[in-house]
Amino acid sequence: MYQRLVLAMAALVAISTSAFADFTGLTYEIHATSSYGTTYRVYANFDDSSDILQAFWAESPYAINITSGAGFYQNEYSGAFAKDVNAGLIGVIDGIEYDSWLTIGQEDNSPVLDGSTVGGSAWNSAVVAFEAGGDFYVNDAVGGSVFVTPDNPLGEPVGGRVLLAQLTTTGGFTFEGNLQWRDSALDVHSEEGLTLEMTSFQGLTYETVGENTTSDGFNTYRVYANFDNPNDQLVALYGIQDTTLSITTTGTFFQDPYGGAFASQINPLLIGDLFPDLVYDSWVTIGGEDNAVDLQNLAVPTTDFENGGSLVIDDLYGGSWYIYPDLEPLAFPDAQGRVLIGQFTTDGIVDMLVNLQYRAEDGSNPQHVGLAITFPVVTPGCTNAGACNYDPAADFDDGTCDYVSCAGCHESEACNYNPMAPVVDNTLCEYPPNYPANTVDCDGNCLNDVDGDGVCDEDEVPGCTNPDADNYNDAATDDDGSCVIAGCTDGDAQNFDPAATSDDDSCEFLIVGTQGCTYPDATNYDMEADLDDGSCIFEGGDCSCPFDVNDDNIIGSADLIVFLAAYGGTCD
What we know:
- The chain is mainly beta and 572 residues long.
- The protein has helices at 3-10, 121-131, 303-306, 557-566; strands at residues 23-34, 37-46, 52-58, 64-67, 101-102, 116-119, 136-138, 144-147, 161-169, 173-182, 188-198, 201-210, 219-227, 233-239, 245-249, 283-284, 296-298, 311-313, 319-322, 338-346, 350-359, 367-375, 380-381, 396-397, 407-408, 423-424, 462-463, 478-479, 486-487, 502-503, 515-516, 531-532.
- It starts with a helix and ends in a 6-residue tail after the last helix.
C-alpha cells in the first residue's frame, strides 16, 4: 500500500491493525456560492480532539476518485493543493478563493508548517487532469498521498473535523479516498474505501396543507422534489415496465368534478365560493398548481386516479408527465429548493414510488429511480382503547392489541380483585378455599376465632385437650373442662396430686412426730407427744382400754350406752 511510501519518505509511524476507533466519517458543507458554481468543503470527522489525521492516500486497489459531471473550477493562479493557494492573492485575483484543491487542515499557504504531497506517474497525471477542471483519479501500485508529518497541528481536528478538500462545481460530485490517522495512544489506523456523494437532488418531502378539508378525515398534502442547486430544472416524472411509478392510498383520493388529474387542468378562476372544494382536488404536476404551468403528459393512465383510486405506470410502453427544458420557470426550485410534484387529498395513507429526471446546470440529465415516500408519517400501534397496550398516539392499528396481560378480576370478594384492571376477565378470579362457604380469608386467616387460638370457630372440636388425662382426646381443639385425672386429692396425704380431679383412694399418710399419751387428764400424759398412741391411763380405770367403759374388754354399743347415760353430767 502507498502508506509504506509515505512512511519511508515522511517517517510516519507504523500502521496499527486496529481501526475505526474515533473516526466518525466524511461530511461536506456548502462553503460559498458564486458565479463559478457552488463551493463545497469536505471534512474528515473525529470524536476525540487528540486524534491526528496524517494522510489522504491512494494505492491499488484503494483509489482516490474525485469526480463531477460538471467539472471543477480551477483558478489559473492557484494549484491542485491548498498549499499552492497564495493567501496574499485572495481578494486581489478574482475567483482564487473558490479554487478547487486537496489538503490536510490548511486552506492556503499561510501556515508555517504546511502539508506535503508525494506520488508516482498516475498521481502526477491526476494533478494535471484536476487542474484542467477534470477528475482526480489515482489507482495504481505506486499511488500517492497528501500528508503531514507526525504531530503537525494541521492534522488536529478543529471542532471535531479536519479539512480535506475544497471543490467548486456547478453540479454534484463524488469524493472517494482513504485516510491514515493516529490516536492519543500513538496507534495508527487506516480507513479504506471511504465514499461521499453529493448530488443536487436531495430527495422527496411532503407537507400537510389542510386537515379535514373536504370532509372529516380527508387531509390535503403536497409533495416536493428537493434540490441544492437553484439552477437545476425538474423536467419529468415517469414510469415504465420494471421501473414502476405508483401513487396509492389506503383510503380514497378526493377528486373534484371540476378538476383534473394534472394541475394544468385546474382553472384558478373557478376556485372560490362557487366551487369551494376545487382547491383540494388531487393532481400531479411539475412546479405549478394550476393551468399557469405548461405541463405535458404522455400515456399517463388517469382514469382510476380520477375515480379516487391509484395512479400506476408500469407497462411496456410507459408514461410520463413532463415540461420542455428551459421553457418552464415553475420547474426550477423555489426559494426553499423545492419543486412541487403533486397535491393529494385523502382519508388514507399515501405510498408514492416515482422516478424523475432533471436538467442540471451543467447540461447533464441525471435520473433518480425508485424514489419512495409515505405520508402522513404515522405511528403504528394498538388503537383499541379497551386493550392493555392501547396507544392514544397511534395513527393506525397494527394488529398488536393485547387483551391478556392487563386483564383482571372485577369481583370484589375475590382474592385477586382489581378494580383498576382495564380488561375485565372474571374467569381469572381466585377465591378462598370452599368459597362461598369459606371460613378463612384470602390470606388463610379465620373469619371467626373467638378464643384466638388460630382454629376457626366453625372447625373447633370440644373435648379434653390434656394429654395426661384419662379421657384425653387428640382430635379436640377446644378444652371443654371434661378432663378426668385419677389420683390422691387429699392435701395432707404424702402422695397428694394437685392435678387430680378424681380421688382414687390412693392417699398415703406418714406418721411423723413423737407418739405417746396426748390427754392431759391421763395419769401418763406426755406433754411432748404430738401423736396419741392410745396408751393413756386414767385414775379409776384400766387405761389399757380406756374406751371400754363397762370393762368387758370389748369396745362396743354397750360402752356407748353407758357414755350416753352419763353425757351432760359433771365430774366431782
